[in-house]
Design a protein that fits this description.
4-stranded antiparallel β-sheet, Lambda_DNA-bd_dom_sf, 9 helices, transmembrane helix, alpha+beta, Immunoglobulin-like, membrane, 6-stranded antiparallel β-sheet
């Protein structure tokens, strides 16, 4: 079934604005819906339908609105653009051409397909603080691990014979050192007045004997020491620089005792 020429007759007789309005109403669209889809202000779409060109932005933008509106409504954009040029007032054209101001986009709604990212300064600071804390804890754990690592001791396995020989050598060395240390045990006797002193060490060496006058006497030998002192009040005795209290051994003015380390 073909469409008769009379079916297109109403659109041909419609004016520029009425054509846009008729096409919108045929699609059962409101101005609000068209504005939302085209991102063109509702008042500008209304101005196009009412042919209130003074309420529109500069001619170039207004013509662009008309073309986009026509495409949205399924009209021939070229015919709508031609119709716009025909009905657009010459006064507004001259005003636009004589203006020295650059063209400024007006009346369009900004459509951002990408969501805006808002940075919270407090959140950024919190993240930085968390990173610093993690690094600090990591360093503490690393240092603790290094401190806990004991030095590796390299030991060589010895045969039973070598161990026995080594033990004997160590024992002999230790005994020799101990004997040398004991033989070097020092005694210091200080007399404030005449006193009789007899001291013999463990080896039988007579370190001092008989009546002694006042003065300092430095002796050395192997303990224990057999000591006999008369007139203890006149005598001061030190064993390896440690004072020996003679009163604990004295009976009257005489003290006879054995002194060891």
């Amino acid at each position: 079934m073909t469409q008769s020429p009379s079916d297109n007759q109403p659109n041909a007789q419609l004016s520029f604005g009425a054509l846009l309005q008729h096409a919108r109403q045929s699609k059962k669209l409101s101005l609000e819906e068209a504005s939302s889809e085209l991102f063109i202000l509702k008042r500008h779409l209304q101005a196009l339908e009412d042919e209130s060109f003074a309420d529109l932005p500069q001619a170039a933008f207004a013509r662009g609105f008309a073309i986009n509106y026509a495409k949205f409504l399924g009209l021939d954009a070229a015919e709508v653009a031609t119709s716009f040029d025909a009905v657009y007032p010459d006064a507004l054209k001259h005003l636009a051409s004589s203006s020295e101001l650059p063209l400024r986009p007006m009346g369009t709604l900004q459509h951002d397909n990408q969501s805006r990212i808002h940075f919270n300064p407090l959140l950024i600071l919190a993240v930085i603080a968390l990173i610093v804390l993690v690094v600090f804890l990591f360093r503490m754990v690393s240092n603790a691990s290094k401190d806990d690592q004991a030095p590796t001791v390299v030991t060589n396995e010895l045969t039973t014979t070598e161990q026995a020989q080594g033990a004997a050598i160590n024992t002999q060395g230790t005994d020799a050192n101990d004997s040398q240390n004991l033989s070097n045990t020092s005694l210091q006797v200080t007399l404030t007045d005449t006193a009789t002193i007899n001291i013999t060490d463990a080896s039988g060496n007579n370190l001092i004997s008989g009546s002694q006058t006042s003065g300092d006497y430095k002796l050395s030998g192997m303990p224990p020491f057999k000591i006999d002192i008369n007139n203890v009040d006149n005598v001061r005795l030190l064993l390896n620089q440690q004072i020996i209290v003679l009163d604990q051994y004295a009976i009257g003015k005489r003290a006879s005792f054995e002194l060891s380390l």
